[in-house]
């Protein structure tokens, strides 16, 4: 199985024979050790920054309360080990974020020998845009959707007549999941572009199922965002626009490939 996965395909620049199974296991072990080392290093870097990261995560509450003191009075810690648990969560997630470029690099080094030159080129060219889309999704969530979502949660408490008093651990867990969800969802258009450039989906296919996809995107937005229409639109509308941009990019790629094929066919055989 591993030999088939890692065997060089037609069009690769690697002419070596595929490795035996035991060598693939050694490569996998080395890759896992590198990933663990990168994660450990990221967590070490994140440890002294944990208080600042916590303050950054609490800032969306400043749009609701008057000052920092009110925020401190609103968020409580009821467990003896609550502070330690919170610090570990922040250090772990921040360490993953800091180590992510190296994790992607190590995994790519393990997977790339089994890809064709064309597949490698597409992935390399798309990596920068993928990072940008993830960052855009997190920024959009942090700057606009999260404050609105938190206000919506407080409004629901006021509507049913319950005084809200949140724990700091539940707030941080909600915030991190919210930001991560936005970042991951905004990777979906880039996946479509990569599939289109590899010829696995076409622009006509995406246009045919446009209405279905738009409905799915807004359903995803409704699931991942708080129960207010503004947050759902703030996630759904950019996703729809990015979907339309994906169709245009894939269509342009198809036209370019068609022109190249036509020029090749028109040339006289040597």
Describe this structure in words.
The protein has 270 residues and is mostly helical. The protein folds into 2 domains: 1-115, no CATH class; 116-263, no CATH class. The protein is 77% helix and 1% strand. It has 11 helices and 2 strands, in the order H-H-H-H-E-H-H-E-H-H-H-H-H. A two-stranded parallel ribbon has the order 1-2. It starts with a helix and ends with a helix. Residues 1-16 have low confidence and may be disordered.
Throw out a few tags for this protein:
270 residues; disordered N terminus; 11 helices; mainly alpha; two-stranded parallel sheet
A few lines on this structure:
By secondary structure, the chain is mostly helical. Helix content is 77%, strand content 1%. The protein contains eleven helices and two strands.
């Amino acid at each position: 199985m591993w030999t088939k996965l890692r065997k060089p395909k037609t069009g690769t620049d690697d002419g070596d024979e595929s490795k035996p199974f035991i060598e693939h296991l050694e490569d996998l072990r080395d890759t896992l050790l590198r990933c663990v080392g990168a994660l450990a290093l990221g967590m070490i870097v994140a440890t002294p920054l944990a208080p600042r990261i916590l303050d950054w995560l609490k800032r969306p509450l400043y749009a609701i309360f008057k000052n920092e003191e009110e925020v401190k009075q609103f968020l409580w810690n009821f467990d003896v080990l609550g502070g330690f648990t919170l610090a570990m969560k922040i250090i772990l997630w921040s360490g993953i974020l800091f180590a992510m470029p190296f994790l992607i690099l190590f995994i790519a080094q393990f997977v790339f020998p089994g890809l064709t030159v064309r597949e490698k080129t597409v992935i390399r060219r798309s990596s920068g845009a993928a990072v940008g889309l993830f960052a855009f999704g997190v920024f959009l969530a942090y700057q606009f959707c999260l404050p609105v979502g938190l206000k919506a949660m407080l409004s629901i408490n006021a509507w049913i007549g319950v005084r809200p008093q949140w724990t700091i651990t539940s707030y941080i867990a909600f915030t991190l999941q919210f930001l991560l969800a936005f970042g991951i969802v905004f990777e979906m258009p880039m996946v479509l572009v990569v599939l289109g450039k590899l010829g696995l989906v076409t622009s006509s296919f995406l246009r045919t199922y446009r209405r279905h996809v738009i409905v799915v995107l807004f359903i995803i937005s409704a699931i991942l965002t708080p129960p207010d229409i503004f947050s759902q639109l703030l996630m759904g509308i950019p996703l729809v626009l990015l979907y339309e941009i994906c169709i245009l990019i894939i269509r342009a790629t198809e036209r370019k490939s068609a022109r190249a094929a036509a020029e090749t066919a028109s040339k006289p055989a040597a």
